[in-house]
Each structure stands twice: as C-alpha cells, then as structure tokens.
Amino acid sequence: MAKDKSLKSESNLPKRKKLSLNVNEVHEGEHMESEVKKKRKKMAVEAPVQIVTVTAENKKQKDKKCKKKQMQTETKHTEISEPPSRPKGTHELEGEEDLSPEERRVLERKMKKILKKEAKKKLKAEGETPQTTETSGPTPTQQALDYLTCWAENRSEWKFQKTRQTWLLQHMFDLEKIPDENFLVLLQYLEGLRGGARDITVQKALALVEESGKAPEDIAVQQRAHRAREVIQLLS
C-alpha cells in the first residue's frame, strides 16, 4: 500500500509541474499583451502631438515669411514714392502726417484751388482783372477804326454797325484813341449823320468849346475844343 501511494505521488509530480508551467506562460503572455497595448497607446498619444507641433512650426515659418515680404514691399514703396513738394502758401493740417501720399496730393490740389479762388476775389475787390494768357481779340478801339477805314476804302463790303458808330461819337474828341489821320476820315463820315445823333454831337461840341474858355492853359482841353469847333462848322 505504501508503495502504491509513493507511485501515485510520483506520477502526480509531472502534472503539477506542467500546470505551473502553463500558468506562468499565460501570465507572461498577458504581460506581453499589456505592454504591447501600452506601447500602442503611447504611439497614439504621441503621434497627434507631433502633428500639432509640426503644424505650429509651419505656421510660424509662414508668418515670418509674410512679415518679411510686407517689410520689403513697404521699404520699396517708401523708396519709390517720395512725398510731393508742398506748394507755396499751404500749411500742414492736423493729422496730415497719417495720410498716404495719394491723399496728400488730393489735399494739395484742393488747397491750390482755394488759393486761386481767394486771389481772384482779392483782384475783384481791388478792381483789377486777372491776367489771362490767352491771346485776346481786337480791342473796341481797333474795331471802330477798322469800321471807319472800311467805310472810306471799301464801301462795297462796308455794313452799318450802330455800336461802332456810337463808340466813334463818344471818343471822337480823344486824341489818344482817335489819331488825327482817322479824325479827318471821321469828319467825312459825320457829313451823313442825321437825326438825334447829329443834334447830340453838336451839343457835345459846344460844351467842350465853353469848357476850353475856363481852362485856357490846359493843352488837352484846348485840343479837344479845336476838334469840337471843326465838328460845329461841319454840322451846323
């Protein structure tokens, strides 16, 4: 019986060893799987962090490039476009330093227009007309003298013009506007004068003769009176 028990116990030993070996192998397998899972989790966590860091670095690099380009364009713009010279008579307005070159040009044009208007107003107030660069046409004096010469030399093309005749009658005693040569032609023209214009011309001549008696030493008055006497002799 004792032998049988010893045999049984010896026969059970390898089975226990086998069971212990299997349990150890199971534990080792589970440990390996847990480590693999942990490694996978670490990879999963680290991967998006790396992506985020890469994208952030890319953004920083792009921002630096954009800033460099902006600085280059601004320096080029400042080198090429210098601020225009300020016209005379203008002054800096408040906040003009913050304006762009185009806005400054617009302001300067407006200031020039305002200054021109002010200059014209001053000239009008003083009774002076601004000088024009354009070539003006013939003066009223020249037009009246041309009218008179056309009557004397080219009667076929001559046409009566009341404005020219009235100008001649008003200034006929002025030696500066109507020289002596033209006055002789005007006397011939006055021979055909009729109506109220003839009477007014005679009255004006008589008034000048009376005025000459009050200023015998005035040469200009005496010259006008001399012409007035000739007109009276012709028309009376």
Structure description:
- With 236 residues, the protein is mainly α.
- The protein is rod-shaped, with a radius of gyration of 59 Å.
- The chain has helices at 2-80, 101-126, 140-153, 162-171, 180-190, 196-214, 219-235.
What's a quick, concise take on this entry?
By secondary structure, the protein is mainly alpha-helical. The protein has helices at 2-80, 101-126, 140-153, 162-171, 180-190, 196-214, 219-235. The protein is built from seven helices and no strands.
Attribute tags:
disordered N terminus, mainly alpha, single chain, 7 helices, 75% helix
Radius of gyration: 59 Å
Query: What ranges have pLDDT less than 50 throughout 5 or more consecutive residues?
Result: 1-5, 7-19, 47-54, 78-84
Number of helices: 7
The residue fraction in helices comes out at: over 70%
Q: What share of the residues does DSSP label as strand, in percent? A: under 5%
Secondary structure tally: strands: 0
Work out the oligomeric state of the chains in this entry: single chain
| Coarse structural class | mainly alpha
Order of helices and strands: HHHHHHH
Mean pLDDT: 75
Characterize the main sheet.
none
**Shape estimate:** rod-shaped
Distance between the termini: 196 Å
